[in-house]
């Protein structure tokens, strides 16, 4: 009880009320991620299984700094708490989900002002990016070029290996079998997950302090994700076209998919190690005088 | 111009904390405590499509159109989805005067409450091996549709496509998405949708403009019948 003494009762009450309001919702999210039982859009945010505990851990690590901040209320905070309450009160899952990050931002601003928001920024960003919403549904119609790119490069690779394949738009035809590079197959989900994990790693390793390293790392993550998906779709088309449905199922639905994700994340970690070891914090471009021109 | 930091503390922290506790308690009491008692969480009792039965019978029976005789209605599978293919022949004198005496209608009513319109147009074009040319928009009353010439496998069609909803239609899933959010917030129901494709057989490499008047007429007719039968 001694340690609780340092926190005013009202803060404990707010924490308890947050648990009452959002505890069951978070259980519902996690259950949906583990059992893939809600919707494809919900699955896009399954990186929350890693990110939400990590965000909580960071926030917990900052509890002393939080306590030392002066209590001051930014009026925008109260406005956001009101907005989040209205969204929660609709009792519609999409809006209830989105109310969580808005509520948390609102509470930080209401209790500690802008300094509180800055202190908890990374946790809030991690929570916001793990909050299931309908954004993937809204952007799916616009990623057709990415699907076409993946289909044509995967087709090209298979032709190099001597597999008879025809590519039309987002379809690969192998031996009369059709494989469609659907939006979620085009690695949009894996891209989201990779970028999210990259964000966590950049914070964890402190690489975010160098803009050069951060941009290289995020660019590399996107490239790894796209290349990985080309290879994955080439393999899927090969298995499907050659009638190896067991192998297709393994890579598409079963633990082959998990293995693929694990390999991808491992590659990202290796990339970050390489960048940390080989890349300077900033480029010092020295203009050399043309004294020894030939 | 600088923003005065003084504006960030007009309230004493004690009153703010008290207000937050009161507000969150009220929210919890109204919005979630009943669910703790009943075990019926809000995400288990989500809005549904009121017209699901009509949509399902539309899938089996096809759609009747005044002035046109329905000759065939059969389910066909396109990329793991079931569409209803219906063929029509002109019977009324006005329709018989039209340049096209026959056309086909492909309908894909939403199969179940949770289904959202997605990539129906790409799936259909892929399955039919279509090459698409002369893409343009048609506006017929409250319906916006995509209109183009498709050719593949030795046949050409003038094609009209849109997602039919109550009070209108649009080819982009985004329009359905926002209409659906509105109906959830105001009426706690989902907006029903039917993917519609009108196929007018045309001369190979014929001019699509010749088929536009009939396309406009049929778009209005199909939307009107869908609203009367399945999207009320």
Please write out the topology:
The complex is a heterodimer of chains A (294) and B (232).
Chain A: H1 9-35, H2 40-43, H3 48-61, H4 63-68, H5 75-89, H6 93-119, H7 121-129, H8 135-139, H9 144-160, E1 165-168, E2 171-174, E3 177-180, H10 188-205, H11 211-241, H12 245-252, H13 255-278
Antiparallel strand pairs in A: 1-2, 2-3
Helix pairs in contact in A: 3-7, 5-6, 6-7, 9-11, 10-11, 10-13, 11-12, 11-13, 12-13
Chain B: H1 13-31, H2 33-38, H3 52-61, E1 68-78, E2 81-90, H4 93-96, E3 102-109, H5 120-127, E4 131-140, E5 143-152, E6 155-165, E7 168-170, H6 173-187, E8 194-202, H7 212-229
How would you characterize the overall build of this protein?
The complex is a heterodimer of chains A (294) and B (232). By secondary structure, chain A is mainly alpha-helical. Chain A has helices at 9-35, 40-43, 48-61, 63-68, 75-89, 93-119, 121-129, 135-139, 144-160, 188-205, 211-241, 245-252, 255-278; strands spanning 165-168, 171-174, 177-180. Chain A has a 3-stranded antiparallel β-sheet, covered by helices on one side. In chain A, α6 packs antiparallel against α7 (121-129) and α10 runs antiparallel to α11. The N and C termini of chain A lie far apart (79 Å). Chain B has helices at 13-31, 33-38, 52-61, 93-96, 120-127, 173-187, 212-229, and strands spanning 68-78, 81-90, 102-109, 131-140, 143-152, 155-165, 168-170, 194-202. Chain B is 34% helix and 31% strand. In chain B, strands 1, 2, 3, 4, 5, 6, 7 and 8 form an 8-stranded antiparallel β-sheet that branches. Chains A and B meet through α1, α5 and α6 of A and α1, α2, α5 and α6 of B.
């Amino acid at each position: 009880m001694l340690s609780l003494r340092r926190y005013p009762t009202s803060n404990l009450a707010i924490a308890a009320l947050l648990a009452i309001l959002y505890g069951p919702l978070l259980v519902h999210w996690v259950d949906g991620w583990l059992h893939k039982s809600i919707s494809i859009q919900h699955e896009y945010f399954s990186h929350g299984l890693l990110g939400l505990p990590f965000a909580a851990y960071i926030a917990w690590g900052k509890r002393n700094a939080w306590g030392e901040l002066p209590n001051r209320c930014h009026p925008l905070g109260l406005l956001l708490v009101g907005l989040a309450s209205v969204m929660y009160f609709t009792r519609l899952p999409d809006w209830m989900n989105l109310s969580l990050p808005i509520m948390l931002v609102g509470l930080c601003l209401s209790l500690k002002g802008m300094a509180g928001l800055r202190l908890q920024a990374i946790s809030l960003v991690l929570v916001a990016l793990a909050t299931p919403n309908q954004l993937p549904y809204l952007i799916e119609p616009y990623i057709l070029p990415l699907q076409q790119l993946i289909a044509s490069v995967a087709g090209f690779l298979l032709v190099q290996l001597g597999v008879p394949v025809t590519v039309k738009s987002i379809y690969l035809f192998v031996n009369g079998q059709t494989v469609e590079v659907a939006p979620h197959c085009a690695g949009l989900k894996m891209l989201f997950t990779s970028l999210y994990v990259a964000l966590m790693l950049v914070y964890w390793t402190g690489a975010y302090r160098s803009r050069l390293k951060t941009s290289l790392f995020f660019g590399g993550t996107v490239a790894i994700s796209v290349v990985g998906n080309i290879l994955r779709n080439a393999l899927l088309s090969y298995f499907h076209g050659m009638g190896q449905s067991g192998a297709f199922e393994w890579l598409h639905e079963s633990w082959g998919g998990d293995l693929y994700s694990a390999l991808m994340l491992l590659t990202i970690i290796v990339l970050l190690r390489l960048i940390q070891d080989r890349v300077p914090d900033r480029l010092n471009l020295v203009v050399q005088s043309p004294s020894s021109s030939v | 111009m600088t923003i005065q930091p003084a504006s960030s503390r007009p309230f004493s922290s004690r009153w703010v904390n008290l207000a937050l506790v009161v507000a969150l308690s009220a929210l919890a009491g109204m919005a979630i405590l009943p669910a703790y008692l009943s075990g019926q969480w809000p995400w288990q009792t989500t809005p549904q499509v009121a017209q699901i039965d009509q949509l399902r019978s539309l899938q089996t029976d096809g759609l009747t159109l005044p002035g046109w005789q329905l000759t065939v209605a059969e389910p066909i599978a396109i990329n793991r989805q079931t569409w209803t293919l219906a063929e029509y022949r002109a019977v009324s004198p006005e329709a018989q005067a039209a340049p096209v005496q026959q056309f086909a209608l492909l309908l894909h009513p939403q199969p179940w409450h949770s289904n959202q319109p997605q990539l129906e147009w790409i799936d259909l074009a892929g399955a039919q091996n279509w090459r698409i040319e002369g893409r343009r928009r048609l506006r017929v009353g409250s319906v916006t549709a995509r209109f183009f010439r498709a050719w593949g496998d030795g046949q050409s069609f003038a094609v009209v496509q849109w997602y039919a909803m109550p009070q209108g239609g649009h080819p982009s899933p985004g329009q359905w998405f926002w209409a659906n959010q509105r109906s959830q917030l105001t009426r706690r129901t989902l907006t029903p949708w039917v993917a519609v494709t009108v196929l007018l057989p045309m001369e190979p490499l014929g001019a699509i403009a010749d088929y536009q008047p009939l396309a406009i007429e049929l778009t209005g007719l199909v939307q009107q019948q869908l609203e009367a039968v399945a999207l009320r």
